[in-house]
Amino acid sequence: MRPRVEEVRIQGLGVIDEAVLELSPGFTVVTGETGAGKTMVVTGLGLLFGGRADPARVRPGADRATVEGTLIVSPDGKVAQQVHDLGGEIEDGELIISRTVSAEGRSRAWLGGRTVPVGTLTYIADDLVAVHGQMDQQRLLQPGRQRAALDRYAGDDLVKPLRAYEQAYRRHRQVVEQLRELTTRARERAQEADMLRFGLDEIEEAEPRVGEDAELREEAERLAHADALRTAATTAHSALLGDPMAGPQIAQDAVSLVGQARAAVEAVRSFDPALAGLADRLAEAGYLISDVATELAAYAESVEADPVRLAVVQERRSLLTGLSRKYGEDAAAVLDWARNAAARLAELDGDDGRIEELTREQDELVARLEELAAELTAIREAAAERFGAAVTAELAALAMPHSRVSVAVTRGDGFGPHGVDEVELRLAAHPAAPPLPLGKGASGGELSRVMLAIEVVFAGADPVPTFVFDEVDAGVGGKAAVEIGRRLARLARSAQVIVVTHLPQVAAFADQHLVVEKASDGSVVRSGVVALTQEGRARELSRMLAGLEDSELGRAHAEELLSIALADKNAH
């Protein structure tokens, strides 16, 4: 399902006080007397899709102008996904877009119930609508749009080589970026490599071991307090086991005292089991104290003051502390740094080889891009010839028989995302005129007709589902006007078309006819936009033809126009 605009509500815009437009899926025309507000319909649609907000367009006496549109979109389509990504909602396949412009010039926009920047509406509009108003002929005037439009017109012939080019282009950008980083940061990378080598050499020379710093700290403490440790062990030994040189009469050591206690208890242990248990525990205590005393003696013998070894340990600790200050909090962290540094150094040392490899790939990619770009250029030039001829033929039937549209395909500066080509649509308004860019080579009315011719030619390829035209028939009448109506009807076979017109020949081809009626004070009220019946269409066409709704001659001519248009549409 192609998206379409179902309804538009306009309040406080220009001469329009309030109006509701219910639009058909096919070809809708909007007519009305001069000053009724027909052009404000196009202005409102332009605002709805991100057009420039002009506070001068706010109706005098109104605080703001408001335009609200209801669009029918596929819940699974691209537009719905974009709305959901922006936080908006679509209910039952309907998308609500709203725009307000205050009299002071402030503008606000809503998309699917969510406030969004006005630029977001422009972004969404790219996939929804092309507005061709007197001030909105910008869509196909943008060089990027013209290139994209020509590519769509070129069709399947361009798809495969363009995809191959885009893939090669993306890889070329990656290679160029990697080379830029490797070459522009060569000095920094060399400095980093030197720093890593210095650190690795320093660590390799020191050869730290995991846990070594803790071991050295303990050894340094022991060596620094050797005398105190030995004295303490000797004193403790004497207290437990006594001095072997002293006589037994003065023995007050722990072992002797425990022995005396044990002997006293052992003498009477048989009289009470509880006391026997205590005697056993005293025996165990005596054995334990003897063992501790023996170990204290051995410890005292082992502790020696060694100033030389202490100096060595302190020097080693200083070395490890220096490494920890630079590379990690302990020996284990220092060794981890060394492993990571070695891996990074290997990567840096491989830069020269990597640069050579990338340079070779870059040369290959440039050659490939040149080949693919040349193929794209050839396809585009062929499509440009066909396109220029087709649009020129359309213009001949739109009262511009001497105008010629051409497409200039020129080489730009370097490779771009879509090739090397710059595409520009040009118009020669008459045989003696030089081809000029569309925006410079045509007047407002001519530009609308050129846009119509382009859209008709592009109709099968352009994904935009809704087209809005204002003044497409400026300066045209008679047979040319009939041809404009016929082409708009042809465009409406594949898209929704909304046209503001003053020509009955164009209006006769519409599937739906809306008329904007003026109230007595010149403003337009809610009921002022009316969808006409077949009878009402004949009356309105008669007014447009003869200036009188009830003119018999005008009415006959109007009915004839409607019959011709209906027969033409049925024939196609």
Write up this protein.
- Helix content is 55%, strand content 17%.
- Strand 5 (94-102) and strand 6 form a beta hairpin.
- It has 572 residues and is α/β, with parallel strands linked by helices.
State the shape. elongated
The low-confidence runs, each spanning 5 or more residues with pLDDT under 50, are none
Strand percentage, roughly?
Answer: 15-25%
Strand order of the largest sheet: 2-1-4-5-6-7
Radius of gyration: 47 Å
Structural class: alpha/beta
The percentage helix is: 55-70%
Count of individual beta strands: 15
Describe the largest sheet: 6 strands, antiparallel
Helix count, DSSP H or I runs of 4 or more residues: 19
Mean pLDDT: 84
First-to-last CA distance:
22 Å
Function: May be involved in recombinational repair of damaged DNA.
Family: Belongs to the RecN family.
Organism: Microtetraspora fusca
Domain RecF/RecN/SMC N-terminal: 6-521
Supply database-style keywords.
572 residues, alpha/beta, 6-stranded antiparallel β-sheet, 15 strands, elongated, P-loop_NTPase, coiled coil, nucleotide-binding, ATP-binding, RecF/RecN/SMC_N
A few lines on this structure:
With 572 residues, the chain is of the alpha/beta class. The chain is built from 19 helices and 15 strands.
Helix-strand blueprint:
Elements: E1 4-13, E2 16-22, E3 27-32, H1 38-48, E4 64-72, H2 78-85, E5 94-102, E6 107-111, E7 114-116, H3 118-125, E8 129-132, H4 143-154, H5 156-184, H6 186-206, H7 212-224, H8 226-241, H9 254-266, H10 273-302, H11 307-327, H12 331-349, H13 351-396, E9 404-416, E10 419-428, E11 436-437, H14 438-441, H15 444-458, E12 466-470, H16 478-491, E13 496-500, H17 504-507, E14 512-516, E15 529-531, H18 534-546, H19 552-571
Parallel strand pairs: 3-13, 3-14, 8-12, 12-13
Antiparallel strand pairs: 1-2, 1-4, 4-5, 5-6, 6-7, 9-10, 10-11, 14-15
